């Protein structure tokens, strides 16, 4: 019987004898940290298992490396070591508890390898050509013998994965990794039988597929990832990708179509779509390839909406939807969708918080999901607690998350918000197109507050005295932050971000933004999209220094093609009726403006928060009341402070 909400998306699919319960697969996500021997820890197993628990038909563990020279960093599962078996067996067992199929990615960094074994020994990198890679590390062109040995290493790794109880292997042939390097006219400059024509460039991938098939047998599914286009001058495009897909058609069981080259910054934000790119941006490649092959085709590319997923399957653009970041924002979204609870799904906003933490802090993280990275301690929930009377002051993301979590644990929760809507500072992002998922998040939180039975009091600026009179057991102050207002003549002429809380902000044509941090630059991009003449003034020597580098790359792509003028090393010294008088290294200038928009940063409402310190036996501070920061900090603190009650 078909699911009444998403009949196509929820329908099972049988691939090489293996039946997957629906059409949503978990795309490869690798581990930011492993044990000292590069085997999966219980924390890693819990992270991936949590993705499988929520209804995904399959989850793929990313970056299983087939030989030491192929390692791109030091924290990849080493499939050339039999001692990986115990943790992989545990992982497969965890997936199977939830009727989720276990998949393992087989990868090799090639010229982008870090040339390290797990013991730290140095290697010469290998790839199609003799060269220095972008990091200045020597790369040696692979010999015939090395090509054969590496192909066999893929086969050996596949055999180990099958022995571990996994259900499918995933060969990484795209994104500019080793197989992609050979397949690409941009990378591969060989003149022997492994380079030149497409037939020659694909020879290595076909050899690897052959060795993997020999290792796992005819009845074990193989998924092959390829880029539908490399999206760079000199790389292959969709026409050649179609021919590549035809070459592997029938030799693998799923053709997984992605896009781009991972190690190219401009294309990174296509491979891992930024918020400035349309959702499903890479589906077109899968749809074209599907017209020419019989093998089931998987697609992905910033897809976070189950209605879009259903349409892709129903229209025949692809057979399978694959998600990565969306399964962090809400690991349970498939079950919610299939049970008619779409309005409770948290949608990924593509902010790159997960990538930043993966690369910089070596942990799992999501701006919207406080459990990500702490799945092991959250696995069995938390013990029952004596119900208490809880007051939350402030209805931003941190305050709402605190209220939801406290109410879910059985406490009586009243939330006071001085505005007429919940959402805090995110309310000004309602009409910004690339921020729609961020705004949707606070809408979901607001509904969860209602569903949890939180007593919500809007338009109520409650005082500390009134809170004290309520006799609460716990008060949670989530009073947020206030804009930093520079002390310059004429500052009263500037307007705040609240002006953006309507569909057509009344700002005139020429807009000057005071502050070129992350917020100021994002607002500038939005106003540029509206056709405004935007000038951003920033005192530091670079714009958006507080942005994650991946997000800054994405912003830079828009800014390069826009009319925006960002003036760094520039200090506003006065706002006049004509515009903003500025001090620059070249001297004093005046930037004409119809409106001046204040985006000089935020500061915690410490004075307000301090007034509530003695209003209950226990007072917790949440979000920007502690320190002006990001949504991820507010949500995480709100969640865990509520668990402290």
Q: Distance between termini?
A: 45 Å
Quickly give the structural class.
Answer: alpha/beta
Approximately how much helix is present in the residues? Answer: 25-40%
Q: Please give the number of β-strands.
A: 28
Q: Low-confidence parts, pLDDT < 50 over ≥5 residues?
A: 117-121
Biggest sheet architecture: 8 strands, parallel, barrel
What's the number of helices? 21
Strand order of the largest sheet: 3-4-6-10-11-12-13-14
Our Rg estimate from Cα atoms comes to 26 Å
Instruction: Return the average pLDDT rounded to an integer.
Output: 94
Instruction: Report strand %.
Output: 15-25%
Molecular shape = globular
Structural features, described:
With 645 residues, the chain is of the alpha/beta class. The protein is 31% helix and 19% strand. The protein contains 21 helices and 28 strands. An eight-stranded parallel barrel has the order 3-4-6-10-11-12-13-14, surrounded by seven helices. Strands 17-16-15-18-28 form a five-stranded parallel β-sheet, with helices on one face. The protein has a four-stranded parallel β-sheet with strand order 22-21-20-26, covered by helices on one side. α15 runs parallel beside α16. The chain is globular, with a radius of gyration of 26 Å. The two termini are 45 Å apart. Mean pLDDT is 94; it is low at 117-121.
